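Case study 2.
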Amino acid sequence: MNIDIPEGKDPIGYVWGELVPGIGISAANLSLAVYQHTTLGLREFEAARLRIAQINGCMFCLDWRTERDGVKVEDDFIDAVTQWRTTDAFDDRARLAAEYAERYALDHHGLDDEFWSRMTAHYSQVEIVELTMSIGAWLVFGRLNRVFGLDALCVLPKF
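Prediction:
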């Protein structure tokens, strides 16, 4: 579906900020908070984020790389995310982040005791909640942008 964007308006700013200001501005603030306030390591953060981007098919999210203090993941990191089960490029935390993102998006009812046992062996409860909120934000906002065709026009909104 394409949203009718008035001529001269920034599509992201219009949809997220003007069309539904009571929801959109808060949503944009949540989206930004995930990046600004994370305590997760860059590799596990990006493993989960990119796995959601792959599932959503969001073009902008697939091209975006989070930067921290001038550091980004390597160029072929996305290939490792695709092969998260077998790649040698991931430690246990990054692998679990990619697995959790996939299962959260595709089979959240299948998150069983065995999975949580592995997860809690590598992540604190605080980190699990943070990762869950991040995955949820990426899932909903990446899908929103993809469904409305905004992902080809997307830049991170600033409100």
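DSSP finds eight helices and no strands in the chain.
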